[in-house]
Amino acid sequence: MTDTINVTYQSTSNAYDANQFLHQIRSQPLFAADFEAASRYTPAELSQFEYHLANSDLTKFERIELENRIEASGLSHPAHSRLTHCSIATSPEHAYVFILDNKRITDLVLNFLVTTPIRQIWHNASFDFKHILHHTGRMPILYEDSQLFAKCILNHVDTTLATVGLKELAGHKYGTWAISPDNFDISQMYESHVLHYAAIDACATYWLYNSILSHVQEASSDSET
Predict the structure, then answer these.
(1) What range does the domain containing 150 cover?
(2) For residue 90, how many other CB atoms are within 10 A of its CB?
(3) Which pairs count as long-range contacts for 76-79, CB under 8 Å and 24+ apart, including other chains?
(4) What pTM, to 2 d.p., does this model score?
(5) Which of 35, 47, 96, 173 is the most exposed place for a label (fewest CB within 10 A)?
């Protein structure tokens, strides 16, 4: 039986501390990263949207806009969601979790992600990069998508044999960890279990990328002998 990896993390919402974390990350040859996001609307705002939707004479487009706001989750477009955390792992066991509750730390972290020359690993980068592009107008310089990497190896006409979700590929190393985007809101962003969840996402991505890389290198070596 494979031993479960225990993840530790350091977290902050302070820009000074975040800069110290980034200084440590800059000394690494690569890192894995992940965003958490939630609907940007408060319960009070959602109640107001529902009231207007039920009691106002709306145009088709006004109705669609209100419905989009009411149904928004962390998976929605950045216009209707907001980043709550960025986790950056420097090993399979340790991550830094940046709590993005103010503009200063958010700008600091996003600027780092689009300017650093360090190789960065994301799992399903299309989700995370839409936030980076929306907020900065730029993309990271050097990156890999561990989900696409895994898909190239596990590709199969039977989709049940080609699942490449992070929790499916790394669950045997990190156990069960999950937060439903439909049930996660801004009020929970400081809770320890949420911070730990964010840290595991990044650490699992780091572990998965290196595991796939080792597998490919071994396969290449075997084919040459």
Answers:
(1) 8-40+84-224
(2) 20
(3) 76/39, 77/130, 78/130, 78/131, 78/134, 78/135, 79/134
(4) 0.90
(5) 47
